[in-house]
Design a protein that fits this description.
The protein has helices spanning 40-45, 101-114, 134-148, 166-173, 188-195, 204-209, 241-244, 254-260, 277-283, 289-308; strands spanning 9-16, 19-24, 34-38, 54-59, 65-70, 76-77, 82-83, 87-93, 117-123, 155-157, 177-181, 221-225, 228-232. By secondary structure, it is α/β, with parallel strands linked by helices. It has a six-stranded mixed sheet with strand order 10-9-8-11-13-12, with helices on both faces. The protein has a five-stranded mixed beta barrel with strand order 1-2-3-5-4. The protein is globular, with a radius of gyration of 22 Å. It binds guanosine-5'-diphosphate and zinc ion (ZN). The site of zinc ion (ZN) has 8 residues, from helix 9. Residues 260, 263, 268, 270, 273, 276-278 line the site of zinc ion.
Length: 309
C-alpha cells in the first residue's frame, strides 16, 4: 500500500487509552494534534512510544493517523514517563509553602542524576513585596541566590499573580522540552497559565472550589510554550534514590563532584576522611553548609535503605 506523508515528523504530546496525539514538528498557530494508533510492529518489538518522542507518522484513511517509527531519544525519564526532556525547572515558592532547602537539594540531586540541565524558579515573588511573610520571603530569595548562583544554577523569579518575571522564563524555555518539578501548591499550574495565555489549567483554589483534588487524571501532557514544550505533570514525585539506582551522591552535587577528584582516597565519602577536598572546601566556606548537610543526610538515607533490602 502506498504511504502518504510517510516523511512527516511530529512530537507525541499526549498518550491516552491506546492513542498517541502527535503535533507536526513544523507547527504553526492552527496546528492541532493528530490522533494516532501505533503500528503493530512496536508491540512485536516490545517497544512503546512515549510522550515527548519524535516520531514519523502518516495520515490513515479513517481521518486518524499511524505512528510508524520512533526517532532516537536523547533522554528517557521513568517518572514521569517522558522522552527527550532536556531541562528541569525546579519551582519553589518564596513562601506559602515556606522554602524548603532540603527538598530543593533533593530535587536537584535527582535532576543531576538524570543528567538534565536544571534551572531554579522562585515563584510567588509578590509575597516578598507585601504581606505578612514579606521578610521571610525576601530572605528565602536572597538565600537561594547566594547558594545556587555561584555553583552555576540560573535563578528566575516570577509572580504569576503580577505576571512578572514570566517573560524571562518563557525565553529560557524556547527550544527545550522541559519538566516543571516542585511540591504541590508552589504555583506550577498558575505559572504555566501565566506562560501560555488561554491555557486555563486548573489551579488549587479552583479544584478545591469544585470539591476535588487536582490531577485526578494522571496522564502526562506536553504543553507548547512558543517553540518549546513543558510537561505538565506532578513531576518527580517519587523522591527515592535507591529507586533511581543511585549509589554515590557525590556525582549529584556539582560543587562536590568537581572537588572529589582532589580527595586523597579513592571512593572518599567526604564524611571523615583525611585529605578530603570536599571537607577542606567546606571548612573554607567554599561549599554551602546547607548543601553539605543535605549531602550527608541523603547519604545516610541511602545507606539505611540499602541495609534494609
Ligand atoms: P501547583 O500545585 O504547584 O500547581 O500550584 P497552583 O498553581 O495550583 O497554586 C497553588 C496556590 O498558590 C493557589 O492558591 C494559587 O492561587 C497560589 N499562587 C500561584 N501563583 C501565585 C503567585 O504568583 N502569587 C501568589 N500570591 N499566589 C500564587
Ligand atoms: Zn572527599
Amino acid at each position: 500500500m502506498p504511504e502518504r506523508n510517510s516523511a512527516a515528523v511530529g512530537r507525541i504530546v499526549k498518550a491516552l487509552s491506546g492513542y498517541y496525539y502527535v503535533l507536526p514538528e513544523e507547527m504553526d498557530w492552527h496546528s492541532v494534534p493528530i490522533q494516532c494508533r501505533a503500528r503493530g510492529i512496536f508491540k512485536k518489538r516490545g517497544e512503546s512510544p512515549l510522550v515527548g518522542d519524535l516520531v514519523t507518522y502518516e495520515h490513515t484513511s479513517n481521518g486518524e493517523g499511524a505512528v510508524n517509527s520512533i526517532l532516537p531519544r536523547t533522554s528517557e525519564l521513568v517518572r514521569p514517563p517522558v522522552a527527550n526532556i532536556d531541562l528541569a525547572v525546579l519551582v519553589f515558592s518564596v513562601t506559602e509553602p515556606a522554602l524548603n532547602l532540603q527538598l530543593l537539594d533533593k530535587f536537584l540531586a535527582h535532576i543531576e542524576h538524570a543528567g538534565l540541565q536544571a534551572i531554579l524558579c522562585l515563584s510567588k515573588q509578590d509575597l516578598a513585596e507585601h504581606g505578612p511573610d514579606m521578610e521571610e520571603a525576601q530572605q528565602a530569595m536572597e538565600q537561594v541566590k547566594a547558594i545556587y548562583e555561584p555553583i552555576g544554577y540560573e535563578v528566575f523569579s516570577t509572580s504569576s499573580r503580577l505576571g512578572s518575571g514570566t517573560d524571562a522564563l518563557y525565553n529560557r524555555l524556547q527550544g527545550h522540552l522541559a519538566v516543571l518539578a516542585g511540591q504541590s501548591g508552589v504555583g506550577k499550574s498558575s505559572l504555566l497559565n501565566a506562560l501560555v495565555p488561554g491555557l486555563a489549567l486548573e489551579t488549587n483554589e479552583i479544584s478545591s472550589k469544585l470539591g476535588r483534588g487536582k490531577h485526578t487524571t494522571r496522564h502526562v501532557e506536553l504543553i507548547p510554550v512558543g517553540d518549546g514544550y513543558v510537561a505538565d505533570t506532578p513531576g518527580f514525585s517519587q523522591l527515592d534514590f535507591t529507586a533511581l539506582g543511585c549509589d554515590d551522591l557525590t556525582g549529584c552535587f556539582r560543587e562536590m563532584r568537581e572537588r572529589a577528584e582532589q580527595c586523597k582516597f579513592r571512593g572518599c565519602t567526604h564524611l571523615h576522611e583525611p585529605g578530603c577536598a570536599v571537607l577542606e572546601a567546606l571548612g573554607k566556606g567554599e561549599i554551602a553548609a546547607s548543601r553539605y548537610e543535605h549531602y550527608k543526610q541523603f547519604t545516610m538515607e541511602l545507606k539505611d535503605k540499602k541495609r534494609r533490602y
